[in-house]
Amino acid sequence: MTATLLTYLIAIAAAVPLGWWLARVLSTAPMPGEALFAAIERPLYVALGVDPARGMTWQAYARAFVLSNLVLGAFVYALLLFQGMLPLNPDGIPGMSWDLALHTMVSFLTNTNQQHYSGQAQLSYLSQLAGIVTLQVVTPMMGLAIAAAMLRALVGGRNAAAAREGDPRDVGNYYSDVIRLTLRAFLPLALVLSLLLTAQGVPSTFAGAAPATPLDSGAGMTEQVIPIGPVAPMVAVKQLGTNGGGWYGPNSAVPLENPTPLSNLLQTVAIILLPIAAVFMVGGLTGRRRLALMIFASMLLMSVGLTALAIFAEQAPNAASLGLAEVAANMEGKEVRFGSESSALWAALTTQTSNGSVNAMHDSLNPLAGMAAISGMLINAIWGGVGCGLVNFFVYVLLAVFLSGLMIGRTPELFGRKLEVHEMRLISLLVILQPLLLLGLSAFTLAAPTLTGNSNPGFHGVSQVFYEYTSAFANNGSGFEGLGDATSWWNLSCVAVLLVGRYAGLLIPLAVAGSLSSKRVAPSTRASLNVEGPVFAATLLAVIVLMTLLCFLPVFALGPIAEQLSLAR
Amino acid sequence: MNVMTPNVIKRQRGALAAAPLAPAAWDALRKLHPRAQLRNPVMFVVLAGTLLTFALALSAGPGDPHFGFMLTVGAILLATVWFANFAESVAEARGRGQAASLRATRSELTGRRVVDGREDRVPASSLRRGDRVRVSAGELIPADGEIVEGLATINEAAVTGESAPVLREAGTDKSGVIAGTKVLTDEILIEVGTDPGDSFLDRMIRLVEGAQRQKTPNELALTVLLSAMTLVFLIVCVSLPPMAAFLGVELDLVMLVALLVCLIPTTIGGLLPAIGIAGMDRALRANVIAKSGKAVELAGDIDTLLLDKTGTITHGDRQATAFHPLPGIAVGHLARAAQLASLVDPTPEGKSIVRLAERSGGPLALPEGSTVIEFTARLRMSGVDVPGRPPLRKGAGDAIGRFVEAQGGSVPPALRGIIEQVARAGATPLVVAEGTQVLGVVALSDVIKSGVRERFARLRALGVRTVMITGDNPLTAAAIAAEAGVDDFMAEATPEDKLARIRAEQAGGRLVAMVGDGTNDAPALAQADIGLAMNAGTQAAKEAGNMVDLDSDPSKLLDVVEIGKQLLVTRGALTTFSLANDVSKYFAIIPAIFLAGIPQLAALNVMGLSSATNAVLAALIFNAIVIPALIPLALRGIAVSATSGDALLARNLLLWGVGGVILPFPAIKLIDMMLYAVIGA
Known about the structure:
By secondary structure, chain A is mainly α. Chain A has helices at 2-26, 34-48, 58-81, 98-109, 119-122, 125-154, 174-199, 231-240, 261-286, 289-315, 339-352, 367-379, 388-407, 421-447, 449-452, 458-473, 488-517, 534-568; strands at 210-212, 224-226, 413-414, 417-418. In chain A, helix 9 (261-286) runs antiparallel to helix 10 (289-315). Residues 1-16 of chain B have low confidence and may be disordered. Chains A and B meet through helix 13, helix 14, helix 16 and helix 18 of A and helix 7, helix 20 and helix 22 of B.
């Protein structure tokens, strides 16, 4: 209880000023440290050939986003393919196969960090630092930039005051947003956390793997190789940027990646810090503080609900070994150092935020805790990924606005701008894409057992497969380990899901906001919909729960629910 | 000549009372054709499911233990589609009946067409726009149009239900005439305004007829969302068998079809066309002819209503209410002078001055040899020259001032104060002078219509600001505005001012409605988002607006706003209800579908339904009968109370959302119990 409360409290307390800071970074007004930051940024703008002061339409913003992703993607793909011949490779790790490299590149480019490989064994230092960490730093800021552009568009763009109905709207400068967010917010934050983690004993070195002599020679080993490296900075970045891809295969369950209770607390807080801060950023960016509060309260309510379900489910004895041993709580697949609560807390938060780092094996969660984890990813808007969570949340907001607008007898409108056929087409496309990909691919994979590489038959097998695609679509990256997922089928099908989840998930809402931005703005009256009040929040929560339940109750019934019911007997 | 019985429109209370049910039931059967169903994606899926179920039943044959179950499922599905068609047919029949009763008399009409001064009698159907027709007392007007010559009293009871005759005159703002109405006196020449089949009524009929009906923008947006939800549930159901197969469970296809039909939003999908048609029909019942469904739908969003003071807020005929003499002049002297000057004045104002003066001083006769000076727009005054007395004049303050100065007199400074005082009280000051001497002011008050205040208060509660437009001076306008309870006013307004005001309001993002009747209102009516033209108004005004009020009652806009809001609320509430219902249906069907393969899931059978087949049938029956049960509501529309948006949302969310989740549980259980009693487990 204490650990959970403390985590939420620290994260929220730190997120309020951080959200204010993010809004400052995204405005063009001078801020503390302006001279220093500007001096670093100027050469970058010159090198990229962009004028940071020039505003972009939503289309130009989206194009810049896609272009920058293509360039980065090509660079990292080449790096992974040819890492064997490149420097900073003291352990002589060979290049990746084409499909694994593709999956790895896409997985990190989409801020997912789904890993079908083990970091310490299959990536060189150069790949980890120049490839993986670069993407881990910039992709969350790209997501946040898209969220900022969407929010600006929803309130009519930065030129709202001067523009007239139908005029193109300025939603910000993509390059300037990403660079400012990275340099002025993310890197300083990552530096602080990295130092704190180093102080706790997380390795931070360029030396090669350390050899050690095992105490128990009976295992038949005379020497054990312990991979180390610049772990601390990478862990800081993976936690803060809802990345999740760790240095070591077993992620933050490994003592070297997460050595102490304090490091565990810090890393848990870091999971939700930026996603919560992004919510508070909404207030500063749109000038609607009550809106930010409404979003915060809605998300907090859902977050606490799912976290409570996960912790509650894990307090129960391991459902699979019921009657075999008297155990207080489910400890299978967990670090004894962390125990059941801290592991369940991490599992709940990492899936809500699309982070995907783990400090316990989700495969071994009790069925209902596993369901809480899957639900967090399906909704993908309870805090959610940095920026993406906010963008997803607004898709639900738009759906709720459509229904509640009708129920008060007005053509549905958000901030006075009408939702019409065009916007509903785009939103509907998103509504369809999620079940189409998740259920469609799960069904296809399960129907062809040779493809699945499933380690479990029965209900748990259904959960494993569904979890993998859900995690990919939510750009989460965690997995029900135990799935033989390093095959071409899994690599390629996940690549497709990752790409759609990321790019459709960010660009469609931006298009909707862009289309709304230049519409006529109806004044707010007593009779219009108040999206900042508790009644709308209740409607919104109902829409989120109902949409998720209606789409996925059958697969829940075949997976975790059936498993829980069978084990409980 | 045709003799016509006035076809008075009654407002029906019960939603189904006026509907001919048997033809609608038959019509609903004809609509089962797949091509007709394509317009409605949700019901098309149900129809496809029906056909699949029957095909499965036939291929299984009567020997199959589930043969009866399959046939029953098929029958319920077919009934579901038929119910949805029935809802649409009933709504159409009502609307068509309403419109047809208005149109009934037109087909047999004939008119005297005038070509190059020659008249010949032709049937109304051959009259074209621009033709001229002469109509005399006792004849029926053959086509919609405008009087170009003469004036007449007309009985419009056939169209409006109002039996008191109305005066229509060429060249005024009341020159419009409607086909089927009867000229009572005089003779008029009419210019036909529309081609046959293109009158407002014809357009309205097209709005209520299913096959030709164009979906309104919001209806389209909702259809997109409903289609998406249908597709989502299709994906859910199609992906189930392979997943179940992984677990070694084979699913019953018929049960899967049942699950699909229960999940897709059939309730709103089935009732959506009926809701739209019923909205148009309600407008027609209020004697408002809308030119498009979009206009009615949009009416619910109106932020600002612009209306003329005269005829809308006030009766328009100003009455003398007080004499205000200048210092040193006796009231009686002023009253006598005003009385004399008004004796031969035929206007209502003039007559009211005579009446007021008679109350204190008795009647007067105009002396022999007097000369009457009639009112002209140039001089803006009238009066009388009585032999042996300085000329008497009454008129606007500045006009009388010029007159007095021309006679060699001067305007006393006290006049200004009296004029302002009268104006501030909301009356129009009429100044009276005798030769070089100004006597005082007659206060002419505009009487505010009863009930106007309440209507504006109700509009305000619905979020609509009212702006009064008047040619009065700002002081008078402010006083009347305060008394009538409008939110804002425009004084000394010209037609250009109206147009500019509408543009300004629209630039502020507001949706503007305008009520008007004159030709000079036409640009403003066209510019406004909702232009409600009075039927008595000119053809130009009627062409420019997107709605015509047959009763020529400007406050009708309130009804239109409410109809628009009802339309949207009904759609929103039933969509919410439809989706909320799905929760219980999952709890009924999921345990049933997996009963054999995954018996553990029986724990989800929270309703304790008697058997798998009964559970499926109960959910399906509930799903089907919800549609006819809600037809009256769809036709009547859900009432919109004039509370805040938040309160309205809370109420509807509780009623249709929470209610929609809870209600089906006991309902499905009840149906299951009845099934168990009749056919056993």
